[in-house]
Amino acid sequence: MPPHDPLDCLKCPALCCRMAGYVRVSRDDIRRLAKFLNLTVRQFEERHIIEKTRKGEKRIKAGYRTCQFLTPDRMCGVYEARPRDCRGYVCWNQDDETVYDFARFLQMPVDNLRAGEVAADAKEKLARAKRQARR
After folding, report:
1. Which of 17, 87, 98, 101 has the most CB atoms less than 10 A away?
2. Does 62 or 1 have the greater pLDDT score?
3. pLDDT grade for 116, boundaries at 50, 70 and 90
4. Distance of alpha carbon 57 from alpha carbon 129, whole angstroms
5. Hey, is 58 helix, strand or coil?
6. How far is CA 40 from CA 31, 37, 70, 75, in A?
7. In the prediction, which pLDDT does 36 show?
8. pTM, two decimal places
9. Quick one: CA dihedral 65, 69, 70, 71, positive or negative?
């Protein structure tokens, strides 16, 4: 696979933090995050664990929800203490280049077009296609 140009993390659309996916936290992650936020482990779990699986996994992000630690300027509010799941995720090093290419695409300027308009247009086209398929 050819090397990529560096991705400007400061322009990142934070897709991994806003789209599909889960962030599991281990006991060590919980301790580190609690300490970083000046909370006890129990306080952290009560305030920030949003999901527990049948297997006992604890999560701070579930499904299509935005990560609770993503700041308005798309930065990680707990970067120094982020969980192992987040530390290990590197979008420009995925076997499937889709994530990297999509992130790169979103960093390109688009004249007179906002992401919300694009999403609304795509949603409407999808709804129209579903209606036509039912006929």
Report:
1. 17
2. 62
3. low
4. 38
5. strand
6. 8, 9, 21, 24
7. 98
8. 0.63
9. positive
Helix (H, G, I), strand (E, B) or coil at 130: helix
**Portion of the chain with pLDDT greater than 90, in percent:** 28
Asked if 44 contacts 33 with a C-beta cutoff of 8 angstroms, the reply is: yes
Residue indicated by tokens 């934070």: 14
In Å, the largest CA–CA distance within the chain is 57
Distance CA 31, CA 118 (A): 40
Residue burial 81-109, b: 16+ Cβ < 10 Å; e: rest: bbbebbeebebbeeeeeebbeebbeeeee
Is 96 a residue whose pLDDT tops 50?
A: no
CB contact at 8 A, 51 and 23: no
H helix or E strand, kind and range, residue 41: helix 41-48
Distances (CA, A) of 61 to 66, 70, 105, 113: 7, 11, 25, 29
Task: Give dist(CA 101, CA 121) in Å, integer.
Answer: 21
